[in-house]
Amino acid sequence: MAKKNKKQIRLISRTVLLLIMAAIIVYAITSKDRVKVLAEGDKAPDFELVDLEGNAHRLSDYKGEGVFLNFWGTWCPPCKKEMPHMEDMYKDFEAKGVHILTVNVGEPKVKVELFRDDLNLSFPMLWDKNKTVMDLYNIKPLPTTFLINPEGKITKIIKQGMSEQQIREYLESIQPK
Amino acid sequence: MSNIKCQCGHENPYGTELCEKCGRPLSEKAKKSDIVDMRYEGSSRRSQTYKSSIVDKIWNFFSSVKIGVSIIVAVLAASAIGTIFPQKFYVPATTDAEYAEYYERLYGVVGKIYYQLGFYDMYNSWWFKVLIVMLATSIIIASIDRVVPLYKSLKKQRTRRHPSFMKRQRIYGEGDVENTEEALAKAEEKLKELRYNVKTENGAILAEKHRFSRWGPYVNHTGLIIFFAGVLLRGIPGFYVDEAMWLREGETRNIVGAPGYVLENRGFILENYTKDEAEEVFGEALDKVGSIVKTYQTDVTLYKEKEGALPGSDDLEKMQDYSIVVNKPLKFNGYNVFQMDYKLNELSTMTFHLVNKSTEKSLGEFTVDLSKPEKEYDLGNGSSVKMIGFYPDYDGVKDGEPYSKSPVPNNPAFIFQMKTPDKPEGERSFVAIRQTLEVEENDYAVKFASAETRNISGLTIRKDKTLYILLLGGLIFMIGVIQGSYWQHRRIWVQKDAEGHILVAAHTNKNWFSLRKDLDKVRESAVLPAYIDRQDPELDKQEQEGDEK
Prior knowledge:
Chain A is α/β, with parallel strands linked by helices. Chain A is 42% helix and 19% strand.
């Protein structure tokens, strides 16, 4: 009896140790980055930025509605290419509860204003002068677009320019039901 | 898997080589050998015992020293291969496709394979992580499997050992002496004097010293495992930060890797030694190289988001002003911000004159701050210059428009609208460095007058909560090494056998020379039979004969 008991304890302790090591392997492989990098399915972190007119926008202001969050720079050709398409759809989708917010990555304000006036853009252009939100959302390539659904979850991260058709589909995907 | 019962009556676990109590050889191999294998006291390593379930099989795999060594060799080989081509970190690319292209373009097919196998980012490749965790598993399991039986058998060992055990020791002697009782008593006294732990059991002596040195390797492995755990913690967000950022003079920026903190660069200072102040020390070197840097310094102001403020808001509170110099980082909340690099003389402001082209008379001047340009510059007396276009890194015309390839003011260009009392509707002019373009002939022109530059500080941001864990691991590792290296576990057995002969045997895990010295000292005061070191018999014979003369 005692012997059987001992054998059982041995089996359990061996199994536990091996499982711990296996868990460590799984963890080590799946955790790619030292800093928390946002992924699809994560909750979009809240922020507060002012637009070119000085109005403050908080992401949480748009709770219950979809947010198409686009990070861009004036020097980036694909950013410039996709903006007129966004402008075309902006008013339509605003009425349907999907907001287009664009975040400029801390360029001089005048430069951003010139860009906006040049392309006749009317959606809010938030100005991330300290690059805080850019770092918060781990922005590497430009443009990068986050689709945020009415529940505040990131449903998709697009790290390249988008065609008119794609933009429409993406906007529709986060439309409140 | 039954136990083995020794003749002395002790039950030994299956796989035991030498009886835990009396030391009789139990296995065929041990019975046949002249000198018995004393590793782990001939105890049964648990891995060799049970091979029933899959768990036991995996356990046995990791328990093997051969497997452990193979894993180490694999890690070393992989690490060596990882140095052949540059790691991802040093490659100027951002997307996977760019990396793939880079390695293939520069190193051909080999480069492509190197990329595909993950050698280009080795520390993050799944197989390298698997190898490291396997190594840790091997260390843990192999250690547990050896230290437990070793501890048990050293604890259980009896003072009187069976003659068959004594005879199979490397150092062994037997013979008759006139007064056995006296010899044993003298030997005991001397061994105590030599600071051995002496145990006696009617006519048998076991003298033991520094048993703790046997635990050295296991203490060492514990340290190593703690070290591994520390390294593993680095992968968990919040424990370890190692980031770099450029911060221009006058710029305020979120600190990379330190959410909630913002840093302003109030100025970068690069100071050289002057000949007067450092003549004695650097005089010769100054003559040779011209200049020696005295200080790299960034004056900064640290801000923190106010409690409850959202990232990106202007709701900041000033924490402190500080001057970062080399090796004197800005410290806050576990973070260190180090002075690491610098770039000098990036364009920061440009001053222009608005001039009448025919009279060359200036209507006034204005200064454009390239990081904060204004929409319109009023020159007074009815003249103004309006900014219509700004291209900080002008790189020619693309699709009929001037194009800026980056936001960095490397080659600024502007389109100005000049309003003057003569031309109230305004004239347009494109102005770049050493270039002015006009759509139609203008009466006025914007002429470059002067420029100012600013410097950029390269800062690194570090935070390492694992440092003390690594330190602790390293410390325990070293204690283990010292414990195992500078002490040796020595044992001397002296006993009277059934026929009244005196048997002497001795064992140590290393430094046999000192053990023999100890034994020789015992033999000086007690009459004991001569012994031989059976791995070096000739040497001993000579020495002991010499003693006896």
